[in-house]
Design goal:
The complex is a heterodimer of chains A (157) and B (267).
Chain A: H1 2-17, H2 46-54, H3 85-88, H4 91-100, H5 141-152
Chain B: E1 13-14, E2 18-19, E3 23-25, E4 36-38, H1 46-51, H2 60-71, H3 82-86, H4 89-92, E5 102-104, E6 109-111, H5 113-124, H6 135-146, H7 162-172, H8 183-187, E7 194-195, E8 198-199, E9 210-212, E10 217-219, H9 221-230, H10 242-254, E11 264-266
Parallel strand pairs in B: 9-11
Antiparallel strand pairs in B: 1-2, 3-4, 5-6, 7-8, 9-10
Helix pairs in contact in B: 2-6, 7-10
Classes of the chains: A mainly alpha (157), B alpha+beta (267).
Chain lengths: 157, 267
């Protein structure tokens, strides 16, 4: 019996690791915008998440948010400071906020990082030229999982 | 808005004599949106601010001098210069910048200062129009603007311009591009806050054309608008397009009461 259980767990983990990412248009948001399951099917890597958070060409979250522990100059103040966000938010909530914050905070200025359609005059990156929808999402499913893992490390310990 | 780095309390006097109104009660049409309108000057560093207090330090004034030459240069099939019809800019252009964009009765359209300059060039001089955001245009706009320095912006929003003004207002609150940001997201909801290293102002146009340390030349209103729209990962509008004319009228009207500062200095 015990052996079977371990085998099933191993199998599940193996199948999860090769899962297809959830398409941006198929994400299932809860009533308050949370997303329960991993978008990539894989766990996130907090170190990569820190890089996505801090890098201009990636999440560029630092343009609006401050995190004290980061060695990044000129962190912005358009959004709240996130030093302890891992204390009071669940992974599901954070995943939903990063994927499409408007489901959690209607009208927020925070961009939707896993959204591909429904824009007004969508452009091709920062070229100023027109682009056809669907656009590539601002972040990949795995990058969002990495961010969630990073944000969960932001605790008062 | 305005957490850490809101507008400062400095005052702007140019050449020790022109006292600028850099903060004013918001015009009535902004009720519910803003109480006070604030010049972009207040959001710049002390060093940058200083450069605007003296025409010998303000590099933008070099371009005003260049425009004096253009003002007096005969061009086009009619063999005329601006001076042929308008004498000196000091005599003919005082107060003009403060009321633009404005309705042109003869043409039956809202005109920006740039459009009026080009209308004179093409229709009255038989000359080539300046490129809408070109250096020649920015310089000429600056020469005309200097004649109104210190005068309050006073753009009309009623009567024949109303429809255009409404169009501009709608654009101001439209969340363009993949980042879904409106002018208001940054310049109304978040002025005073830093977005990365940039200290957000109210995005007023009373200082335009502005001399930017970044590119060491005068920059036009529509070039700035284009940059801001592009930064939302949107398809921009063309400088001089009906959309940007409408937006300019609306944004200019948000600054009614602030002094004309052009050419102002920005980073």
């Amino acid at each position: 019996m015990r052996r079977t259980a371990i085998c099933t767990a191993a199998l599940l983990a193996a199948s999860a690791a090769t899962a297809e990412p959830v398409e941006p248009t198929s994400v299932s948001y809860g009533e308050y915008g949370a997303v329960e399951t991993s978008l990539s099917g894989n766990p996130g890597d907090p170190d990569r998440g820190r890089e996505v958070f801090s890098t201009k060409s990636m999440g560029n979250c630092v343009s609006c948010h401050q995190v004290s522990g980061l060695d990044v100059p000129f962190q912005g103040e358009v959004g709240p400071m996130l030093d302890f966000v891992g204390e009071y938010r669940t992974p599901a909530e954070l995943r939903g906020i990063v994927a499409n914050a408007k489901n959690t905070f209607p009208e927020t200025v925070m961009p939707s990082f896993y959204k591909t359609t429904g824009f007004i005059r969508p452009g091709d990156g920062f070229t100023g030229k027109a682009a056809e929808e669907p656009l590539p999402p601002l972040l990949s499913a795995q990058e969002i999982e990495d961010l969630v893992a990073f944000l969960m490390t932001l605790k008062d310990t | 808005p305005a957490l850490a780095g809101g507008a400062d309390d400095d005052t702007l006097v140019v050449n020790g004599e022109i006292e600028m109104t850099t903060k004013a009660d918001a015009p009535d049409h902004l009720e519910g949106a803003l109480d006070q309108v604030i010049s972009g000057w207040h959001f710049r560093s002390d060093e940058t601010q200083q450069l605007q207090t003296d025409d010998f330090e303000n590099q933008g004034m070099i371009f005003v001098d260049a425009a004096y030459d253009a003002w007096n240069t005969v061009e086009g099939t009619e063999e005329k210069s601006c001076a042929s019809c308008h004498d000196s800019p000091e005599d003919s252009m005082e107060g003009v910048r403060a009321v633009y964009p404005k309705w042109n009765e003869e043409a039956g359209e809202v005109r920006t200062l740039a459009q009026q300059i080009n209308a004179c060039r093409t229709e009255r001089m038989g000359a080539e129009p300046y490129g809408y955001t070109s250096g020649e245009m920015a310089n000429m706009e600056a020469l005309i603007s200097v004649q109104s320095r210190g005068m309050p912006m006073n753009v009309a929003i009623d009567g024949p311009v109303r429809e255009t003004w409404e169009q501009g207002k709608e654009m101001y609150y439209t969340r363009y591009g993949q980042l879904e940001l409106a002018c208001a997201s940054c310049h109304e909801q978040n002025y005073g806050n830093y977005i990365r290293a940039d200290h957000l102002s109210q995005g007023q146009t009373n200082g335009f054309p502005v001399y930017r340390l970044k590119n060491a030349k005068l920059n036009t209103t529509h070039a700035r608008f284009k940059g801001c729209v592009r930064d939302t990962r949107a398809e921009t509008f063309q400088p001089g397009s009906p959309e940007f004319v409408a937006l300019e009228l609306y944004v200019a009207s948000r600054g009614n009461g602030l002094s004309v500062e052009a050419p102002s200095v920005r980073n």
